[in-house]
Amino acid sequence: MRRSLFGRVWPNATAVVLFVFFVFPVYWMVTTAFKPDLDIISKTPVFIPVHGTFAHFRAAVHAAGFWTLVRNSFTVTVSAVLLSLVVALLAAFAVARMRFRGRKVFILVIMMAQMAPWEVMTISVYMIVRDQNQLDSLLPLTLFYMMMVLPFTVWTLRGFVAAVPKELEESALVDGCTRFQAFVRIVFPLLAPGLMATSLFGFITAWNEFPLVLILNKNSAQTLPLWLTQFQTNFGDDWGATMAASTLFTLPVIIVFLFLQRRAVGGLTAGAVKG
Amino acid sequence: MAAQTTGARTRPGRGRAPDAPPADHARRGGRGLGARSAPYLLILPACVATIALLGYPLVRNVIISFQDLNAFQLIQHTTQWTGFSNYTDQLSSSTFWHTVLRSVLFTLANVALIMAAGTAVGLLLNRLGKRMRLVLQLGLVLAWAMPVVAGTTVYQWLFDSQYGVVNWFLAKLDWHSMAGYNWFGHQFSTFSVITLMIVWQSVPFVALNLYAGLTTISAELFEAARMDGAGAWRTFGSVTFPILKPFFLGTTFLEVIWVFKAFTQVYALNAGGPEGSTETLPVYAFIEGVGNQHYGMGAAISTLTIVILLALMSYYFRIMLKQEDDL
Predict the structure, then answer these.
(1) Of the candidates A1, A14, A273, which has its C-beta nearest B124's C-beta?
(2) Mutate which of B41, B61, B140, B254 to disrupt the A interface (most A C-beta within 10 Å)?
(3) Which domain holds residue A185?
(4) How far is CA B164 from CA A240, B159, B270, in A?
(5) Which of A30, A123, A224 to mutate: most B Cβ within 10 Å?
(6) Chain A, window 69-88: residues with a beta carbon less than 8 angstroms from a chain B beta carbon
(7) So what's the pLDDT on residue B324?
(8) Chain A residues with CB inside 8 Å of B36's CB?
């Protein structure tokens, strides 16, 4: 079938417009971060930064406590993800490979927990953490972030475990392995890519979390998202430094995401990656 | 009681998937109590975590909502019960109902835009040539990957009244009154920015997943539709939509739930301002509870919000469970 010239041109033209719409905010963030102040506040916006500068990145990195914040964010995120990986792997194995009473209920609870309204539970979480005298510390953040990513981790790992052929495990059992040995020697190595992908998604969720740290850690032990929302207040209208900080914060996520893009599409995530 | 009935249904031999392992069952039977308790030991940590870190906060939220818990009681560590008064206060206040209405309209507008735009972009992806498709996919993934918090700072900068590129652009288009316009000074304009941002963040998810779904429909179906003389609209209505109906239903509900409880976007962009005119339910609960230190009242608003969300979710699960047989 031949299409008219118009029929061939408009999809591509629309695609270009859409591409600009979706990429522009990201582009603007990165370029603003590299522009000297005069270009940032010029009457006509400078669309291509010809006089690149690292001054704003220096300002962001040298901001008070920046490296502590980076360390806090990484500590909380990585520990939460690792913890949830261990807990989830056990559960995922049970759900994927065993039939037991209450299995379906457990799956249902996990599916519902995946949509838990954390955004509106902050008051009670605050009270619980306050009762334990754990405000302004990293431990409660770690535990709650672990819980936030746990359902998704169980749900995806269950799929990965189920994808490992049962026969492999069974032949190991026949050869005299215990069920545990069969798991460690046969199933676990095959799960490695799945574990990797799942934990990276958990990383993104925990790295970006904002409402809980907003209420729990007002005074100390803050993380990068909280700092980023206050950056503007702290630095006045220093848009260059604000955008440099946003860029630094976004960088790990973009890298992880581009790496995961293929897995992200196709229903694997089913809404769990956002929010 | 739900545990009993569903538990019974998972047992093999009742029309479950053929590979529901009877062998496993037999082996377990032969191994006695230790092996029979194995699955429960494996799910135990997950259960403990869910009960302690999710179940308890939910219950606690309800408990707090029956208390008069303000700054005074918080410092004195006293508990003062008030029964349903937090609820009756809210349910009889016009602020609450205005916020509910605002939340509902906000959600409807966002979800309608997200689904319409997401579907259009997904269909477009399917029509593009290979190279152009890759370019657009890259753009979508970049927007999708952008952390919400970073997104809000960037949108504040884009819509800055003095140096923002949006105002410059609009003035360039001969809309001179937009030069120096303060987007965050009015209700409608603030909502417009929030909506634009949420749509920008959410469309990639819908579009890329729809495209993934479209690639699973065999080309012959589209071919047949075209042979029968169906236009683009008719093809969508008679082929694409019916086949992907589960996707559309599921995604719409996910987006409804997601937008309804969106907190970071609304709060980080303008903190529900100006003068609380863009407070949606989650933000209202936060500002009333934490900002004004009426924790009991805030918890009552949260509980009411959670009830609305649960109603939405139960509908979502009804849809999902109907299709999902491989539980």
Answers:
(1) A14
(2) B61
(3) 64-264
(4) 13, 5, 16
(5) A123
(6) 86-88
(7) 61
(8) 100
CB B294 within 8 A of CB B317: no
CATH value at residue A104? 1.10.3720.10
> Cβ of B232 under 8 Å from any chain A Cβ?
no
Clarify whether residues A39 and A128 are in a common domain.
no
Share of chain A above pLDDT 90, in %: 54
The two three-digit tokens of residue B251, written as one number: 């995604």
One DSSP character per residue, B68-112 reads --BHHHHHHT---B-TTHHHHHHHT-HHHHHHHHHHHHHHHHHHH
Q: Is the separation of the CB atoms in B278 and B272 below 8 Å?
A: yes
- Global pTM? 0.87
Indicate whether A271 belongs to any domain: no
Instruction: For residue A165, give both structure tokens.
Output: 């052929």
B210, B190, B293, B191: which is closest to B250 by C-alpha?
A: B210
Q: How far apart are CA A80 and CA A10, in angstroms?
A: 47
Residue A209 has pLDDT above 60, yes or no: yes
DSSP characters over A24-40: HHHHHHHHHHHS-HHHH
ipTM of the complex: 0.87
| Integer Rg of chain A from CA | 23
Mutate to test the interface with A, among B37, B42, B47, B288 (most CBs of A within 10 A): B42
> Are A36 and A168 contained in the same domain?
no
Gap from B241 CA to chain A (nearest CA, Å) = 17
Q: Same domain for A110 and A216?
A: yes
Nearest-Å Rg of the Cα atoms of chain B is: 25
Report CB contact under 8 Å: A87, B61: no
Both A19 and A114 in one domain: the answer is no
A254 and A123 housed in the same domain: yes
**pLDDT, tens only, A3-58:** 677 877 889 999 999 999 999 999 999 999 999 988 888 888 888 888 889 999 99
- Cα gap A147→A126, rounded to integer Å: 16
CA-based nearest distance B42→chain A, Å: 5
Domains, chain B: 28-65 (no CATH), 85-323 (1.10.3720.10)
Position B317 scores a pLDDT of 84
Q: Do A207 and B3 touch (CB under 8 A)?
A: no
Question: What is the C-alpha to C-alpha distance for residues A32 and A37, in angstroms, rounded to an integer?
Answer: 9
| Contact check, Cβ <8 Å, A207/B147 | yes
pLDDT in tens, B290-327: 999 999 999 999 999 999 999 988 888 887 777 665 55
Are residue A69 and residue A47 in the same domain, yes or no? no
What count of other Cβ atoms lies within 10 Å of the Cβ of residue A24? 17
Both A112 and A196 in one domain: the answer is: yes
